[in-house]
Specification:
mainly alpha; ABC transporter involved in vitamin B12 uptake, BtuC; 0% strand
């Protein structure tokens, strides 16, 4: 089967997931609610005001994380790279931890304090990346990767400090947010996250050819006319802001950005012209399915979706690690 046809089929499957999953829950809703978007019937209210925004947010967030993973794996030439490699998730988590501990109220445009604080923390991490690339325009991907690791450790230490000094209730809320979840997502969250992710996706898509060349190595890319340092910086910043928007809405959900690009390489190949849209479609549908499972496993209670993705992603990570070692 041709890769393009596989991409079309993947798109159809993703569409089916987005349409069907809002109907699925502890109580399965009838198809008739689809024709009643402004209805006051409880089933219609649950469908249109709670489940639809949540499913769409899961899809957009998963797509953003998967795109981030595909970009970073190409730039760093590392199959284990994730969209959180440069400390965006740690920065977002620090923002939430600080806001919870200090009792800040940062409601903006209908967004919750956690979402605003998370995006501010993510932008802090992006700012550090930008400063590094400005101070050292020729900084290598390896050096930037190590800087991201150091930034992750630094932010994590601050998060632990904030948790230790916070009250018991604040500490629990911080831990709960760190697990990732879509329980608090509404139309305001969706409306604010979507433009950030879409804009980042548009920027990334314009560099599909450059990503193909960067994945082969900076020397090869430079010999083919790619301005390596400038292209890499733009991709770093666009991807980090996109991932920051997703994390602000959904929390630091792990493994989506690592798994989706690898699975899509088996489906459509490694050319980013097809890999990027395939990763977005697969990542979005995958997170929708994981969130649906999180709603059902402990019904009427709800499991953090990060637990589901980690349960599936950890064995996949080990398989990738063994496969990488075995290929040497």
């Amino acid at each position: 089967m041709r890769p393009t046809l596989r991409l079309v089929l993947l798109g159809a499957l993703a569409l089916a997931v987005v349409v069907v999953m809002p109907l699925v829950g502890g109580h399965v809703l009838p198809w008739s609610v689809l024709a009643d978007p402004r209805g006051t019937d409880p089933a219609a209210v649950i469908f249109w005001q709670i489940r639809v925004p949540r499913v769409l947010a899961a899809f957009v967030g998963g797509a953003g994380l998967a795109l981030g993973g595909a970009v970073f794996q190409a730039i760093f030439r590392n199959p284990l790279a994730t969209p959180y490699t440069l400390g965006v998730a740690s920065g977002a988590s620090l923002g939430v931890a600080a806001a919870s501990s200090l009792g800040l109220s940062l409601v903006v445009g209908g967004l919750s304090t956690n979402s605003v604080a998370a995006f501010a923390g993510a932008l802090l991490a992006v700012g550090v990346i930008w400063v590094l690339t400005r101070l050292r325009p020729g900084i290598s991907s390896t050096a930037l990767l190590l800087a991201g690791v150091a930034m992750n450790f630094f932010f994590s230490s601050l998060i632990l400090f904030v948790q230790y000094t916070a009250s018991l209730g604040d500490s629990y809320r911080i831990i709960r947010w760190l697990m990732g979840g879509l329980g608090g997502v509404d139309l305001h969250t969706l409306a604010n996250m979507t433009p950030v992710v879409v804009l980042g996706a548009v920027v990334v898509a314009r560099y599909a050819r450059e990503l193909d060349l960067l994945a082969t190595g900076p020397e090869v890319a430079a010999s083919r006319g790619v301005a390596v340092a400038r292209t890499r910086t733009r991709l770093f910043l666009a991807t980090s802001v996109m991932v920051g928007g997703a994390v602000a809405a959904c929390g630091p959900i792990g493994f989506v950005g690592m798994m989706a690009p690898h699975i899509c390489r088996f489906l459509v190949g490694s050319h980013h012209r097809l890999l990027l849209p395939a990763s977005a479609l697969f990542g979005g549908a995958f997170l929708v399915l994981c969130d649906t499972a999180a709603r059902l496993v402990l019904f009427p209670a709800e499991l953090p979706v990060g637990v589901i993705t980690a349960f599936l992603g950890a064995p996949f990570f080990l398989w990738l690690l063994v496969r990488q070692v075995g290929s040497r």
